[in-house]
Amino acid sequence: MTKKLLIILMLAPALLTNLSCSSAKSSISDNIGKTELRGIWIRLPEDTHEIPLILDKIQKSGFNAIFVETLYHGHVIFPGSNFPIRPEYAGKDVLKLVVDEAHQRGIAVHCWTEVFYLQVDTVKYPKFPKSPLFDIHPDWLLLTKKGETSDVAENAHIFADPANPSVQAYLLEFYRDLASRYNIDGINIDYIRYPSGQPDTGYTEFARKTFQNETGADPVNIDPAVDNEMWMKWVKWREDRVTNFVNQLAETIRKQNPKLILSAAIFAKYYKERGKNTIYQDWETWLSNNYLDVIIPMAYAPNPSGIKADVDEVLEKNKGATLVMPALAVPITREDMYGGSGHPPIEEQIKLIRSMKLKGHTVFCYDWILQSIHKFDSFQEVYATKEK
Fold first, then answer.
1. Nearest-angstrom CA–CA distance, 268 and 387
2. What is the pLDDT of residue 386?
3. What predicted TM-score, i.e. pTM, was given to this entire model?
4. Are 127 and 135 in contact (CB under 8 A)?
5. In the chain, where are the structural domains located?
6. Helix (H) / strand (E) containing 72
7. How many Cα atoms occupy the beta-carbon half-sphere of 63 within 13 Å?
8. SS3 assignment for 197-259
9. Rounded to whole angstroms, how far apart are CA atoms 243 and 286?
């Protein structure tokens, strides 16, 4: 069995529950090409009694996987982690509840984790809890050239320094624990990058000293207009720090649980703006080294041609065994950061992805569907139509 075939089956455990040991081999070959990952991204409600009802709605609509927000704003939804549990879930194991309830409905559970984005600006968004992480480790804060935190670059998003080995070690321990304790189907890494936007970031004391020791140049003094060669070394240095983490994470997860699916949400257009784009997300290297099982280009363009261009960009660079399964944005009745009501109808987006012969897609997100014109009915109808 090829790795791709195994991954496809792992992404849809509901199909496997119908297989007996004696018929597994023939059924696997029968289902390949018919199996379509239909995932939905979701942040769980504070009232955990709503979760079974939500999962009923997701199942009825035809989805077979959820990407449940598990680590966000530096807090988690389960106890015993090195990250604090979200206050609303104190005394509860919400992740176990979700896994148990989802699996009863034949729905796969992928833990959606926001890797380096570890605190929201609680002054702007006081309803969210402040993470204690940066009070304990102020040297972990990602900084601009002027020593500002990263929320000046990406609004309200406070990042940890991806280059700092202590940050990476802390995160790797989190993932090792998650993979070992829960019967999940996959782990998704989001915000696996530096912040998007200006000013540029990465200028922590650790990063500056390390880069200067390696190259002789202090990054704060590099001007791309004057020394583009050194600037591109600084670009690649930051790319390599993120790539090194992805590599270590893949090794950690596969050692802990080789059946888990590792996926990453990425920006497809990074290479078109390399050197100017500030995210330093070298996902092509991740693909060439097979670090990921699934790559998820966030195809949130406001028109079909833009969506297709994003997906094509990844397909063209994918020379390894990684499956490409884009994330699609639901059009809603208000403006959103990705184009709002300008997104094509979700039926058209799914039809487009199916025409590209991909093995699945994900939809962003549950809350947006509630705000959309067609609600969940559109998915029930489109998923009732078999993939062609």
1. 25
2. 66
3. 0.90
4. no
5. 3-384
6. strand 65-72
7. 31
8. CCCCECCCHHHHHHHHHHHCCCHHHCCCCCCHHHHHHHHHHHHHHHHHHHHHHHHHHHHHCCC
9. 7
How would you classify the pairing of strands 360-364 and 37-42? parallel
Q: Among 230, 171, 226, 234, which Cα is nearest to 208's?
A: 234
> Helix or strand or coil: residue 268?
helix
Residue 271 has pLDDT above 70, yes or no: yes
User: Average model confidence (pLDDT) for the chain?
Assistant: 89
Query: Buried b vs exposed e over 45-74: b needs ≥16 C-beta within 10 Å?
Result: eeebeebbebbebbbebbbbbbbbbbbbbb
Residue range 3-384 in CATH 3.20.20.70: no
Token code pair at residue 38: 């239909």
Cβ–Cβ < 8 Å for 295, 323: yes
Taking only the tens place, the pLDDT of each residue in 182-224 is 999 999 999 999 999 999 999 999 999 999 999 999 999 999 9
The residues, any chain, with a CB within 8 Å of residue 375's CB and separated by 6 or more, are 369
Q: Which is higher by pLDDT, 334 or 295?
A: 295
Structure tokens at 305: 């041609």
DSSP class of residue 323 equals E
Share of the chain above pLDDT 70, in %: 88
pLDDT of amino acid 333? 66
Tokens 């968004």 locate to: 125
Residue 138: strand, helix, or coil: helix
Angle between the 377-384 and 346-355 helix axes, to the nearest 10 degrees?
A: 30
Q: How many angstroms separate the Cα of 193 from the Cα of each of 65, 303, 378?
A: 25, 26, 33
Residue 84 DSSP class: P
Structure tokens at 12: 């849809």
Q: 23: which 2 tokens?
A: 């018929």
Residue for token pair 């050194």: 230
Comparing C-alpha atoms, which of 267, 294, 265, 264 is closest to residue 359?
294
**Nearest Cα to Cα of residue 118 among 181, 168, 80:** 168
Specify whether the CB–CB gap between 333 and 341 falls below 8 A: yes
